[in-house]
Amino acid sequence: MITKSDWDTIQHELLDVDQQHPLGDPPAVEEMLAYTRGELSPEDEERVRRLLVLYPELAHALTAPFPEDDAAPGDDGYLPPEELNRRWTEMRRSIHGDGGNVVQFWRRMSLAAAAALVLALGGLLGQARWSAHRLQAELAKPRAASEYVVLMPDGQRGRPHKPVRLAPDAESTMIVAPLVGPASMDGYRLRIRNEDGAAVWTSGPLNLRDDDTFAILVPRAFLKPGRHQVVLYGIDGTREEQLATYSLTVPAP
Amino acid sequence: MTIWKAGGGGGDEWFESMYRKHYGRVWRYFRTCNVADDEAHDLAQDTFQRFYQHMAQFRSEPEAVWSYLKKTAHNIVLNRIRGRLTQKRNGLTVDIDDPDLGFDLPAPEEPDYAEREQQALRRNRVRRAVAELSEGQQQVLRLWVQGLKYTQIAETLRVSVDAVKSRLRDAKKHLRARLGDDR
Hints:
The structure holds 2 protein chains of 2 kinds.
Chain A lengths: L3 H11 L14 H8 L5 H13 L1 H8 L17 H16 L2 H15 L18 H9 L5 E5 L13 E2 L6 E7 L8 E7 L5 E4 L10 E7 L6 E11 L2 E12 L3
Parallel strand pairs in A: 1-3, 2-8
Antiparallel strand pairs in A: 3-6, 4-5, 4-7, 7-8
Chain B lengths: L11 H21 L4 H18 L9 H27 L22 H19 L3 H11 L4 H8 L3 H19 L4
């Protein structure tokens, strides 16, 4: 008979960590969703299928059903009214401004942005996928006069906001913009406007990275001294919707 | 545009009604995805924060709210799990709150040599039996031992539920035959 020990061995054999590395990182979210819709090529479909088997937590999350009914008292997952009230109080506080909560949120985003992926700027660099590990390694190397800034969205209620000021002597700046808005849009776009409101650069369609940020590498020569604004757009089908603006100031050299 | 300003003039009262109507199910969904209770609350709040920004477009079609929340929650949990798996795989960080990070229990009492020898032989038989399964059978078995339901396995592998049951039945049959199961 198959004993419990046998099943433990079977599970270990099937989940042998040494077998995992050749297949690579988990599939991207967009890829998984395309897989469920049957939109991938046969080769990609097979690759994603193998990866989902390799990462069953993702397979589970991808296919877990949504509860369509409310849990009754005594059921697992029942939410008592007082708990719901407490959660609503937290939500209302975050909506109407509580410096502590908002600061925590953006602090967490800033830490996450430290491992953000780099995207190309126009035609200057080829678009490439960087792992967080590689980005950290690159950022750890000496480099001349460059900087890394995390932008804050304009207009946070209840908190004074000054535009981020770039360093006067940096050759280039890695600008990281945290997502504001839904993570479920078809795509995103960034645009840089000068203080006259004219667009000086517009990106192609961008995908949201795992840590909910966008990053662009901007040569300093590209930005004239003065105030600029980075604008984030969400793309939904053929519509573009402005999601957030982030102001920054470029000092004179 | 401010972060938490509702697009297009949606009212807080309506938002609260949608929040109270759907929050519990959104939270339970995250728990279904094996997210711990507290983190499930955090992810549920994220979901509703995103909804708040766009709720004005749903005022005229409240029946679309649940679809939007499901889609948003789905993306949030997939991003969260994928990010954690990628970090683990690349060895970047180990979260002190990681439920998989634990302390080793004291080693059980050592069995005697003959028993250990028998156990090793048994394990080798099991390994060979698993290796003899077809790829499809191994895939089904792998997801099944992780607790996925038939419908989830079928959706993951893009095969029918009957195919899942058939492969699993054949896999178990083979294992019993190789390991000497009479049941």
